[in-house]
Specification:
The structure is a single chain. This protein is of the alpha+beta class. The chain has a single domain (about 5-155), classed as 2-C-methyl-D-erythritol 2,4-cyclodiphosphate synthase (60s Ribosomal Protein L30, Chain: A). It contains five helices and six strands; from the N terminus they run βββαααβαβαβ. A four-stranded mixed sheet has the order 1-6-4-5. A two-stranded antiparallel ribbon has the order 2-3. Helix 1 (about 45-55) runs parallel beside helix 3 (about 75-90). The longest helix has 14 residues, at about 45-55. The chain starts with a strand and ends with a strand. The structure holds magnesium ion. The site of magnesium ion has 5 residues, from strand 1 and helix 1.
Length: about 160
């Protein structure tokens, strides 16, 4: 009998004060303010990684890729996601699909959506859906202080 496991992932990063690039799902958003973080601060890759690890019962991204480790400084987070996919496969799970919400006032996600979905699907070997949502000017995200990302992942064995 097929087993199903679901996992959720969350990530939030504030915008950086320096002029680092904004990277989401491996897509560089030209001319947009980047996010503060130890790695490249790709909140989509981080949330999807956490959803997958949660579904597989393998802990969280902080355990596997601690931000105190110099090895991950400035890291390409899609490589972190790739490593997570390998761990999930090694544990005997197959990725069924992933769904992501990116919550921010700026930038607009829609123009990059197809590329983001494509990048994720390539690494996951499974369909990925990305939706951009605004926070309707409520709270820190609504004040454009950062970007929040929510992801769910479904695994089958
Ligand atoms: Mg993060």
């Amino acid at each position: 009998m097929t087993s199903l496991r679901i996992g959720q992932g969350f990530d939030i990063h504030r915008f950086a004060d320096d002029d680092r690039p904004l990277v989401l799902a491996g897509v560089t958003f030209a001319g947009e303010r980047g996010l503060h973080g130890h790695s490249d601060a790709d909140a989509v890759a981080h949330a999807v990684s956490d959803a997958l690890l949660g579904a597989a019962g393998l802990g969280d991204i902080g355990q596997h890729f601690p931000d105190t480790d110099p090895k991950w400084k400035g890291a390409d987070s899609m490589q972190i996601l790739r490593a997570v996919v390998d761990k999930v496969h090694a544990a005997g799970w197959k990725i069924s699909n992933v769904d992501v919400n990116v919550v921010c006032e700026q930038p607009k996600i829609a123009p990059h959506r197809e590329t983001m979905q494509h990048n994720l699907a390539l690494v996951l070997g499974a369909p990925a859906s990305v939706k951009g949502r605004r926070a309707e000017r409520l709270g820190s995200i609504g004040r454009s202080e950062g970007i929040m990302c929510l992801a769910v992942a479904l695994l089958t064995s």
